[in-house]
Predict the structure.
Amino acid sequence: MTLSVQLTLQRGAFSLQINNSLPLQGVTALFGRSGCGKTTLLRAIAGLDCHADAEVQCGAAIWQQSSRFVPVHQRRIGMVFQESSLLPHLTVAQNLLYGFNRLAKDTLIQLQPEQVIQLLELTPLLQQAPEQLSGGQRQRVALGRALLSQPQLLLLDEPLASLDQQSRSEILPFLQRIASQTGIPMLLVSHQLDDVVKLADQLVLMQDGRIISQGPLAQQLLQPELAAIGAMSLLHAKSHGSVNHLQHLSIGKQQLQLPAPQHGDTASYSPTCYRLRIQARDVALSLKPLSDSSVSNQLQVSISGFNSAPHPAETLVQLTLAGQPLQALLTKQSVERLCLKIGQPIYAQIKAVALD
């Protein structure tokens, strides 16, 4: 299923021009600096704003075209904003069921309340009032309410922006669990690249009211526009359990390790595959394995290219590890000293504590 959007909008000096199809599978992130048009685009998709010349089609359903405009409550979407917007006079249980009890009689029920309560671990909170909840708990309830509306699509507008770091760490595993277990596609708006890398499968990069590139997240992280924010890579690895508080993983035939999540950090969710976020500045290169080093992750890679970095003294070295892209940020002096060339086999040194 794809989401097709055509939208032209002029507001003062700001111009939004969109004519794109977005994949609706897994998590698709709309990413860009504040003011680039992400939320405006999301509100048009949701039907919260009606723009005269807009066209929006979700799969086979035409939500807006010419004189046709399907209102937001008929679009089969679930929405979660920065603020949870829970009804303060209702308990958590009543907030969860508020929309569920008002579904049309012919609505196909794919998620039952008991499933959502278990999925988001809400049982201990059901009789509490919203004012008794932490920010992360309120967002979990908001997610549950959105899921119980039986959506065809989840729209998330900066759902972590108003949370402190502890609350963000608390709710991220639940978003990952929703994505992996419900099969409901999610469209996420964010200007925090760290959150995007932890959640998204596809990245749509927006700049000055336009979509300038889109595609699988791992490939999109190579875009030069993201280097100024902080070049990083995404690696997919298989889990082989943990020993002595270290998680043991494999990428292809190579092994690596990182500190295992502490009890309670995973929201009772232990995946067999991990997404590893690696800052390019945390990757060092050597011509051969180092025997006398504290770095435990030494992975054989090949050099696939070189890109400019924000600082004139630095270079982004593009690497390939078992078919996956990896970036290393080096000084140009180091590149020249090691005589690095495209196609050259080399070893990437990654500290275990640098992996996330």
Summary: Residues 97 and 145 are 7 Å apart (CA to CA). The longest helix spans residues 165-181. The longest strand covers residues 232-243.
